[in-house]
Structures are given as structure tokens and as C-alpha cells.
Amino acid sequence: MKKILLNFLILTSIFSIGLSSQKKDPDVLPPKYKKWLEEEVAYIITPKEKKVFLRLETDKDRDLFIKAFWKQRDPFPLTELNEFKEEHYKRSEYANRNFVRGTPIPGWKTARGRIYIILGPPNNIQTYEGSSSLYPIMVWFYQGMSKYGLPDAFYIIFFKKRGVGDYELYSPTIDGPQSLLANYSGGQTNYPSAYRELLSIDPNLARISLSLIPGEPSYETNPSLTSDKLLFDLNSTPQKTVKDEYAEKLLMYKDVVEVEYSTNYMENDSSVKVIRDRSGIFFVNYLLEIKKLFMAPYQKKYLAKVSVNGKVTDFKGDTIYQYERSIPFEMDQDQFKEIESKIFCFQDMFPLIEGNYRFNFLLKNEASKEFTSIEKDVVIPESSSLQMSSLILAYKMEKELSSEVNIPFKVENFRLFPSPRNDFSSQDTLYLFFQIFGLNEELKENSSLEISIFKGEEKFRSRQKHLKEYESFDFFLDEFSLQDFPPAYYKIRVSLFDNKAKEILFEEDHFFVSPLATLPRSWINFSSLPPSKNPIYNFVLGEQLLNKKDNEKARLLLEKAYHDNPTQIQFALSYTTVLFILSEYKTIIEILEPFLIDKNYEVLELLARSYHALREFEKAISYYKDYISHFGINYAVLTLLGDCYYQEGNKEEALKAWEKSLEMNPNQEKIKILVDSIKKERK
To answer: What is the pTM of this model?
Structure first.
């Protein structure tokens, strides 16, 4: 029971997440950060990264962000050298040294400097200078660029417009071949005439002037629109190589995770689903997948320790539920070899009262100092309202499981194995699970369900059944063999129709059938909870209601938990906490005083406060003093102790208690007034 309780009890306060800080004007940044943002990384920072950087308030956070920025781009993060960063600054230095002639701006700001910093040195350079027929022209050729989502080979043309100034980037459609000719007089829009003239001077340059992409089909003498798309895509090339989700996570969690974790965000795929069991309790089931769980070798074993923090808040920001725990991993070499290359999947679940919430989950790997997170909205519906749950699509199902434990994505005696990506192979069976809440007898008897699968806009499969044909109204389970599903993206829609064939509810989701015969599946770590009849659930749900300030409902559940296990001190403390709010002080004393026999001193403060509220000051003073002797000085307890002395007429002892309390917390204006009045009476 103690282990189970540890999974549920509020152990520590965790993070407060928000993006409330205001975006700053770059001009108000300290000079070194302004230079970093607007010069050093101007061409490679993504819009999201820039937005996050401008929200940071302190130099410490900016330094942390810069460290994370380079770490995300490091091709070999396990080595000390960051090859990307080294190459980037080498390119910038080259641009500043070689592209400044004939221009008042620094080399990195020039057209050639920008392309050089983004793409690096070209494979080949051809120059046209000193010709009476052509303005100064420079042609750079790049090859092997398909890895950046660009054509594998292409040209970049720089030219001096009208023969003066610095080299500018050439556009086939905006500038055209006429802009390269020094003595052209055929009109600025006469592309065919300019092309023919350029063709007579240099055929290769003429072809490139219309299309920067070798081998692109030509359309007479019309400039290539694809070439201009290439020039546009060049600007975002560095941004395509980095997944910038880490930037927002760094902003969210910079005050929560330790410094050594904060630059090591791991991307994940996640899924959060709500399932109601037969007892009527709603459970939030969630899973999170990362590419790999790093484990440290130690004396022929592999070790890791994962700490998880979960927090549920309402949309006013009030905490409804939170938890924290650590999970150690230890494997021998054979076990580690089996999972080394597999995706790691963490699964968990917890009960939650009805309402609309924000769920934040933080997972940290203490072995690698990495972290990842989930932020999702969660809705727990009213059981009486007619609603359909979101769909769960699973690639596997296990049956005949024990009813003695609750585990994630288990319903009654079977367990579902969903993928957060909803990806399947043609060898899989798709298991579809959903629930409908608030069904009345009329709907149970006369309504029907239609399950439709769409490939594009076309209905690919459809299945219709009366509701009463299913085995249970508590949940609905169906399955589809995917053997004749061609690889594609699909949409699945579940519709509830009434007896007049009117659609009254529906839910949709998407899935993907891969061309691969089999898909790599994760190794799963999950927690197990006791069966739903266990009093722990009344305790947890009662605590949630208490946090929601729904005191009467909280009282009912916490009372049940206490009466089911009256020797469990946490149950007693939670129950008597709500009784204190409801002013039932005598009942509190009856419940808590027996715990002192076994030296459970946690009850002392609530006992003292209850006697205090009953104006039994002598007893209250005794318990306040006992509390201080066991748990140390507490300014709130000292303030209350002083009040007991004051009510008894013992102003000297009241003064001593209040002065100590004010030393710890000077912001107690009413206590200051009372202290001053006692001191004046002395005079």
C-alpha cells in the first residue's frame, strides 16, 4: 500500500508553465546578444527560435538558449567539438574577409555572403569580368544538395546591376537575361531578344540565365519559375535541418528543470486518452515515445533512472492534481542488447474528476540529463451527458488479463497497444476502441453505429451495426484486417445514428498504412495501479475535489476512503482537512487524537487548530508547542500560538510568539499593530 500511495500522493510542487513573458524589441537586447541574433545566426535561426529568444528575460537564460541552439545542430553530440558551429563561424569569417570589396556593408550581409553562409563553398565558380558585352557576373555551381530538400544540382548567379555596386543575386524572372548584357537595347521585358544575344556571347550562360537547374525542361525562352522557387527555398534551408520544438520547451521549463537538463530536450510522440471503467471512474491513460532511452554502463550492467512529474490544472491555473516519482532501470548485457535499438515507450494512468483541464507531464532521464514533455488539454465528461470518447486505434490487443490491477490502456480483461503516430503495416489488425457516455434506454435499444474508413475523399470501407449487437454498452470494440489496405493515409469516422437515421454523435481520427511489411515497435515501461474498488481512488478523487474547492463532494469521497481504512494517516488527514473547512472540529479531534498513541505527529497542527477554533486555548497551546518541538519553528504556527496566549490574557507570551513570527515574516500588518499596542501598554 505504501508503494501505491507514493504513486499518488503530492510529493513536491512542480512546474508552472507559461509563455506569458512579452516579446522584446531586438534593439533593447544587450549588445552581445543583439549581435548574436541579428548577425551571427541571422540566416540559420528559425522564426520560432527567434520568437522564443526575444521572450527571454535574463542573460543567464539567453546563454542557456544559445547553448541549446548549437546543441540542436551538433551532428555528433557525444563529442566535445560541435562541427556545425565550427563550420558556421568559419563560413561567416570567410564571408567577412572576402566579400567586402566594393561595398560599404560587412561581408556577411552581402548577397554572396548570405549564400556562402547558408550553403557553404560552391563546387565550382565561373567569373565573367572585363567583357565589354557583359556586366560583371559570377556563377556558383552546387551539387549534392538534395539532402536539404533542394535540387541535387543548381547554379547561383551574382551580377553587378548596371555594372556598378556589389554583386546582387540574380533571378531569372525578375531580372532576366537582359540585365546581364552591358549594351542591350531591346527593352527590359523582351526576354527572347536578350536570350538570343546572350546565346551568341556565351551559350552556357544563356541557358543558366533562364534556368538555374541543369536539365530542367525549357519552354522556349521563358525564364524558369522553378528557379525562383529555388531562390526562395534557399532562405529556409538551414531551418529545415533543425527541429525547433526544443525552443518552446526550453522557455516553458527553464525554471523547472536543472541547468544540466535544460539544453537537452528530446522530441517525442505522445497520446493522451480518457477511458471510463465499469466503476464509473475516469482514467487518463497516456503514453510517450522517444527514440531511445540512454542507459549508462556500470560494472557489466546498464543503468538509468527516470523521474516523472505530472500536473493537472484547470483553466484558471489552479492545481487539481500533481504527482512525482522515480523509476530505476537495471539490465544485464543480454537484456540491454535486446532493447538497445528499440523505441522507448513510457505508459501511465491516473484517475481524474470531471471537468476541463490542462495536463503537463515532464520526464527526465538522470543518466543522460535529457528531458521531454507532454502538454495536452483533457476533458472528463459528465457521465450523464451524451458524448463519445476520442477513438483509440491499436495495432495489437492482449486478452485474458487479471482484473486485480489497473494498467494503462487496459479495459476489463484486455489491453490495447496504440501507437502515438497511428501507424500500421498491412500485416496488422487495426483494433478500434471508443466509449459513448450518457446513453439512455431508447438509444441503447434503437440507435446504430456506422464505422467508415476513407482513403482521400473516397469511402474505402464501411460497417454498420445496431448498438445492441455489441457485447457491452460500457465500451465498443471493433477490428479491421489491413491486408487489403494499400499504403496510404486514411480517415476513420464513427457515427451514432438515432432510430430516424439522424447522426447525433461522431468522432474521427487518421491513420497511416505503411508500405513496409512490418514496423518497428517500442519496448514499453508502464506502472500498475490497484483495482478500482481500492479506497485509494476515493482518496485521490476526493483530494482533487478538495483542490477544486468542491468541499461537499470531497467530503463524501474522503469519508469513504477513511472509513474503508481508518488506520491510514493520509486518509485521516485529508478527511479531517475537509472537516476543518466545514467547521466540524470535534469530529476532527475524535479522529486524530488516537494517532498520537503511535507517535504520528503530523496530526498535531490540525488538532491544535481545531482546539483553537473551539476556544480551548490551553489544549491548543500544548499542541502548538508539541508541533514546534517536532517540526521546528513555523511563522504561521507562531502567529496562531500568540493568538491563543492573547485570548487567554497572557500578553507577554503572546508578544514573544508574535515577535518571533515577525522575524520570519515581517509582512503581517495586523500582528504588527497588536505587538505595538502591547509594547505601548508596557510603558
So the answer is: 0.79
